[in-house]
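input
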Amino acid sequence: MVTAANGINERVVAKLGQLAQRFEQLQQQMNDPAVARDSARIRTIAKEHGQLKELVAYYYQYRDIEKHLKGAQAILADTAADAELRQMAQEELEQLQGKLTDTLEKAKETLVMSDDAVIDAVIVEIRAGTGGEEAALFAGDLHGMYSRYADRRKWKVEPISFSPTDRGGFREVIFAVKGKGVWQALGYEGGGHRVQRVPQTEAQGRIHTSAATVAILPEPEEVDIEIQPDDVLEHVARASGPGGQNVNKVSSAIRLEHIPTGITVSMQDDKSQHKNRAKAWRILRSRVYDFYEQQRRAERDSTRKNMIGSGDRSQRIRTYNFPQNRMTDHRINLSLYNLDKIIMGEMDDLINALIDYDKQQRLENISVI
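output
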């Protein structure tokens, strides 16, 4: 009887075999003097080679255990073998079966999450949605939640752009987070976030519903994406503040437009044109990289829409109900009654539940091409 788990395991082993072949091809290319002389190409190859190394090690380990396991099974099947030898083979068989299962489980987890695990830097964009000043305050709460969670994980948080409101909220806030596992954990946060609570300005105690959108963009290294300068239009202007007043008398505001995708980035936070340009290019690279990555994922796997972590801002992913101290993630139908702790950055239970769900979905949709 072939179970669903057996089917997944067979696809995993077959996929690992394909990756082992690819690993060996990359190894041969790295040993090619012609490739070694091309610095850009060798960096790309070396990066892919490094990403596959752990998976391929699991594959070879699995095959080695499997070979010894078959040897033990052959002894047990040999009716001519003496009782002591058969007893030793039985004990070895039990040990090997445990090792085989353990190795395969580790390989499966590494396989389906490997693309996420290698991304250690993201740009987080939070924007106030419907709800006026209350939505801006909620955007500020989300910024605080992610910042405190990052601090708990010992990640580095770097501010990029802030558009504050008079009451202490944010119309928009953009910041970078860097550290091991950052994309694997925060990659599920992209989408629409809804809050239900009594605003500070509400005199009659009525509960209001407001919203904010979150985008989590992988921050690529320059080797990961190459944007041709001719594909980008740069506009320079004077930065302006509230009421149209000039923030400074020099042209420091930068607006970049990526012609092939239509993606635009504006930056005027700093008085330095050079710093604004550097920040704008950093955000542009992330947005363009994310644009092409989403296209690539859609072409590779049409079932991706059934998984989580796509980061579609139009999708309402979560509701924060303050009167009930409840957080509900609508994608996995999970409700946690510790919203006060989650807002303070204690997001581990939530993040782990999302990872576990996504991991299972990915395992069921593994394809061997």
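quick obs: The two ends are 25 Å apart (CA to CA).
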